[in-house]
Structures are given as structure tokens and as C-alpha cells.
Amino acid sequence: MIDTPRAGAYHRWLHCRERDLAGHGITFQSGKLSLAESESQFYSLSILESQELQR
User: Fold this and answer.
1) Which structural domain, as residue segments, surrounds residue 20?
2) Which H helix or E strand runs over 53?
3) CB-based contacts of 23, cutoff 8 Å, min separation 6
4) How many whole angstroms separate alpha carbon 24 and alpha carbon 55?
5) Rounded CA separation 32/17 (Å)
């Protein structure tokens, strides 16, 4: 679980994309991320999603 001030805003953004992310095996339970895949794959997804935001 990422625990930084920046992560809070990112988690809110992720929540808006919840339906899309469910296809990647990422779901939400009690407001926290539940990762079906390994965390390294989650970080890869995070980087890809961040790059999409910057376009």
C-alpha cells in the first residue's frame, strides 16, 4: 500500500477510474486498494496511468 501525501490524491483519482481498473484486477474495499496482482505490476500500472494524465 502506498502511504504518502501524494498517494491520497492519487487514490481519489483511482476511485474515479474504478471500473476501468477492475479490468486490471484492482478493486476497492472499504476505501482501500485491493491488488489482485503483485505490487510491482501495480506500480507499473501507476506509472502508465500517470503518463496518460500528463498528455
Assistant:
1) 5-54
2) helix 39-54
3) none
4) 21
5) 14
pLDDT tens per residue across span 21-50: 666 666 655 555 555 555 555 666 666 666
The beta strand positions in 8-54, using DSSP E, are 26-29, 32-35
- Given 3-state DSSP classes, what are the helix, strand and coil percentages for the chain, each rounded to the nearest 5? 60, 15, 25
> Any idea what DSSP says for residue 38?
-
Q: How far apart are the C-alpha atoms of 28 and 1, rounded to whole Å?
A: 12
Hey, what's the cell of 16? 474515479
Number of domains present in the structure of the chain: 1
Residue written as grid cell 496482482: 37
